[in-house]
Amino acid sequence: EQRHRMRGDLLPTADAAWRYAQNDALSLLDQEAVGRITPRPRMARFDARSCMLRRSTPIDSGVDLDNEAAYLRSLLATLPEGEGGASIVLETDPGMEAEAYLLEIAPDLVLVRGAGAHGVFNGLQSLAQLLGQDGTLPCGKVVDTPRFAYRGMMLDVARHFSSVDTVLRLLDCMAAYKLNRFHFHLTDDEGWRLAIAALPELTEVGARRGVPAPGEQPCLPPSFGSGADTRAPGGSGFYTADEFVAILRHAQRLHIEVIPEFNMPGHARAAVEAMRVRHARLMAAGDVAGAEEYLLSDPHDSSVYESVQLWHDNVMCIALPSVDRFIDTVVAEVAALYRQAGAPLHVLHTGGDEVPVGAWLGSPACQARMRAHGWLEARQLRDDFQARCRAILARHGIAFSGWEETALTSNGAGQGEDVYVWNNGWGSGQEDCANRLANDGHEVVLSSAASLYFDFAYAKHPQEPGYYWAGFVDTREPFGTVPLDAPLLPQHDAMGRAPAPERVAALAPLDPAGRGRIKGLQGQLWGENARSRERVEYLALPRLIGLAERAWSADPGWKHPDELAADWNEFANRLGQRELPRLDRQPQPWA
Ligand code: TNX
Question: Which end of the chain has fewer CB atoms < 10 Å from its terminal CB, N or C?
């Protein structure tokens, strides 16, 4: 309420007022029509006629749409068989915008058209939502295009492992709501979840923690939050190369780009521990040179620090050449797995969040490097590390990205790269970080803790699982993230209080160029509370749908608070009456 009141007080821009007037012009009939598809399309109109699809409805499409035709075929497989019915044409029109689609439904013909396969695929998602269980479709027309290029979900499988099947179901669900980026948080202090053939210790050691199996020693102590075994029941706690490739292939069929994250230089305890074990083994075997090759820690490091999650040994010693070799080895293997899946790796997320103060100060190697370059601040050492990462990635043809900390540099590097801005909580001092970075030339993915952290509890209730360090996040939070109609503002502090107007006025607004650099939105499903498949589903849904609505549907522009409340009511009804029952009917339920 407070939030909407605050928005309502802001003056509309001329542009927003124009859109607002246009919105008003949308007839009640059209409003009802667009509400039949989630996320809401740009335009939809239906008439009283209907069209009938059957299990064996003919599909006419070119070879470039084989994947889409197969997808449609599996959709139709759930329908009854029968006589007659319509036929379906899938086609491309390179003149259209990327990802846009046109869906035309007449009694005897259904046409799905997109610029390429992705657009057609998006059209099929809308078709699936309109399709009755008996095969009926309302006749009419849908014209649609996304608001943001980046519409993502992040899943952290490091804190608690998620099985391949859980990941595939999450991808299916993302595709159904037209999300197109999967940020795969594969490593953290508590686990390393992808097998790397050249460095088997990464999973042998780094994928185990928590409650050990009988007769087994835990290699990593449980982090605070959960002492539960992070391995799937009977599972390995990591993805083999084949499993990872299968995930990449599945995502590709769904037109979802998988962005792998290898968190460095902090949040890296699993890797640091694993490489320490490797070092010890090789030393014991008398291979002194080999032992040093991939070491991530400095045995002489006396640095004293504490990470947010209370670790004292989770930061890589970034002055060591073995750190660069480690990164290069991992990146080369990961890139090869992507090639094997037929989905080239374009961008890698290097993490970079929450490096504890004090790291490197007691490391002779780090101190020597700082002295040699005349650097006075640890930040400069870190910027140099990032430059080296960037160079390693560039050699493999891969772009660099990271959490907001990677863009808050001493040398202004990182313009044009994707940066994930999470820390918009009131009192953080970073409330306008997204605006400043976008104005400064960075491509911003809004990942705001206060509205897009799906590991947070939905509400303040003893039975609701999840953190709440930046407030509670119910489905209305992602739905209510309406950036660009006004400066991007955090809506409340952790206590739910709206910020004081004078503090709001002091924040940096988005300038017109910065506006164009808000690349999109992403939901974050951190893993500390994601202890089971059921829990992953509970935390993801229905918040994911609120995110999709905001990321795909048109910028609502400036709106009167009453209208924002009406929008929410309409969306909540759509969820309850259509989307949640539809998810319940899925042939492959999550849990
Ligand atoms: C902060 S915000 C983290 C994660 C935690 C999460 C829990 C950020 C980039 N890092 O390491 O899992 O909070 O809510």
Answer: N
